[in-house]
Amino acid sequence: MENDLQKRLFQFSVDTIKEVRSLPKSREYQVISYQLLKASTSVGANYEEAQAGVSKADFSNKVGISLKEMRETNYWIRIIIEISEENASWISLESESKELMKILGSIYAKSSKNR
């Protein structure tokens, strides 16, 4: 059964993919897009893996990876905001990434403390 965070992470990935499609096709955007797509989709994938963790340590490790990937995602989004003209939707994605970082950080802190 999917929890609320799983749904948010999935939707975040989908929204990011849709926004990347509207970016210019120049070389720098191609590099940024590639990095952003890898990181943003990895967040939810690792959180999904955490849900099937074989131990508390495995769960904590996968959540930690999700958090690292979300931090990277936020970095690429901030770059896009700085270099783009049309960035209202990117600002919204940045805000969501910050909220998701806080949630993942809290889960990671609690799960690694309880190991």
TrEMBL record:
> What protein name applies here?
Four helix bundle protein
Organism, by scientific name, is Ancylomarina salipaludis
Gene3D superfamilies reported in the protein's UniProt record: 23S rRNA-intervening sequence
Q: Which domain of life is it from?
A: Bacteria
Q: Which PANTHER family match?
A: FOUR HELIX BUNDLE PROTEIN (PTHR38471)
Recorded hits in InterPro entries, A to Z, give: 23S_rRNA-intervening_sequence, 23S_rRNA_IVS_sf
